[in-house]
Amino acid sequence: MKYLNLILSLCLLLSGCHKKLDDYDTSNPILVKAYSSTYFYPADFYSESIDSGSIYYVNTISIKPVDQREPICIDLCSNDIAQARTWSELTNTNSSQNRLLKDERQTEKYFEFKRVSPINKIDMVLDRVHKKSYFIPLMDRYKAIDTIGQIPEPTLQSTDIKQYIDYLWSSGIVEGPTKVIETKLQDTTIGHKYTIKSITIVGGDRGIDDIIHVYRNTFLIYDSDGIIRLEKSLIEDIVGKHR
Description:
This protein has helices spanning 2-18, 29-35, 81-93, 155-158, 161-170, and strands spanning 54-57, 77-78, 100-106, 110-116, 124-131, 136-137, 147-150, 179-187, 191-202, 209-222, 227-242. It is of the alpha+beta class.
């Protein structure tokens, strides 16, 4: 048995040595999407395209000086543009970088304040504040809780649930920069269930293969009060590129 195990170990070692660098199973559509430089979402997935800068949703941490901050980070929301602008100003004041307010706009979803560094025009941040009439954030980013937020009335009755959750996802409100490979919307007895299958890559190094984690993200939207809850589970690990 000892010799058999030794032979098997040598075979595995030799087979690993013959695997080419950056080689992976191109017949697997999940791997193809994972390593694509142009694929991020399915064709019908809602996402925003910005020309420059980065999006930042102001929160309970960003509006306070460092010595007054508590370990609670919840996005802010308001229907008052003056209040939203004040939060953007406070976020800028308490930031390590000073950026000047150059423009502002609003959509049904948010107020947005474009801020640009006076010494580096490329350094641009789009401060956003959720419109309370569209989304009420409840998630503390420092805690592992399943309650994301709430869709207020009358938005709950009129909104496109798929687009709504797609927006929360692609804007980074719920998830980070992960790729989506599949979605499914279902009606339920409590409201709606929207499932997003997503992938993330854990990079290998020096002879170690990448691992692609495949997750099932199930959003439950309750018709009774508009509460949005998220259940996330790992459903598969796939071996990716050989490093």
